[in-house]
Amino acid sequence: MPGGQEPIQVLDRETCLVLLGGVPIGRVAWADDRGRVTVLPVNFVLDGDTVVFRSAAGAKLAAVAAGRPITFEADDVEPALKTGWSVVAEGPATIITDADELRRLESLRLAPWAPDPKPDYVRIAIRHVSGRRLPLHPGGVYVEHLYPGEKSI
């Protein structure tokens, strides 16, 4: 590669799931009847090989109830090191109504950051997942000395 940089890595399913399990925020996306795509952030947890998030009544829950195809995306980046990853998951989404399952999910302590109540739990069964990672690029990080004569370690 030019400049000794590694190429973007394509991630396998297992790596994608591990990465998803390490971040608290992702994005849910769907298209309406006119093809207009909506993307909204959600707090989520990975439960096995499914994504679970909470929602209130609104466009997100309506899309799930209507059986619209749902796409989920999460990522993590480190701008100073010019590295990061992105995972996209697709699969059917359902509103969870089983009382035993709801009690079990309560134990996962999925706490949305938004202050409004989100009484409904939604599960996305991941049928397809893909991911990419931009590997660490050495260099480009600078040390700024705040005191004259200070030496770098």
TrEMBL record:
Gene3D superfamilies with a match to the protein in the record: Electron Transport, Fmn-binding Protein, Chain A
Q: One Pfam family for this entry, by name? A: Pyridox_ox_2
Name assigned to this protein: Pyridoxamine 5'-phosphate oxidase family protein
State the species of origin: Actinomadura miaoliensis
